[in-house]
Amino acid sequence: MKAQIITEEESEQIMAMFFGNGRTHDYKLFQASRVRVGKTVRLRADLGYWGLQSTTEKVILPLKSSKLHRLTKAEKKLNRELAGKRVKVENVIRRLKIFRILSERCRHRRKRFGLRFNLIAGLHNYELKFKS
Fold it and tell me: Distance between terminal CA atoms of the chain?
């Protein structure tokens, strides 16, 4: 099973989740989720969501390198800055993977994976609410 989460940047709260089969490309999973993104919302994503910039106006993706076009030092610096801002989402994923059911192969019923993930995400949001 594959899970996709959308978090709020400042509070690190999980705002939306979508689930799919394990071998699904990130961008196809995003398309299948049919998440509507407002015109004022900025999305930060990794290169797994390449192609999202054609459908959404305010998406920030890292720059790609190729054989013919190597990244300059300024472009590499920009990619590092984007990774530094995206690290908050990676920290949320890390906190979710403390639960073994999300970090290892799920051997339970697929039907209830979404329910379990929602419960763990709810615990995460609850902890953030009372942390400060």
Answer: 33
Higher pLDDT, 70 or 33: 70
> Are 94 and 120 in contact, with CB atoms under 8 Å apart?
no
H or E, element range at 2: strand 2-7
pLDDT value at position 76? Answer: 93
- pTM, two decimal places: 0.73
Q: pLDDT band at residue 104, thresholds of 50, 70 and 90?
A: confident
CB 48 within 8 A of CB 25: yes
Q: Which two three-digit tokens encode residue 127?
A: 């902890």
- Our CA angle for 34, 40, 45, nearest 5°, is 60
To which residue do tokens 């459908």 refer? 55
The answer to whether the beta carbons of residues 2 and 112 sit under 8 Å apart is: no
DSSP-derived 3-state class of residue 14: strand
User: How many Cα atoms within 13 Å fall on the side-chain side of residue 33?
Assistant: 21
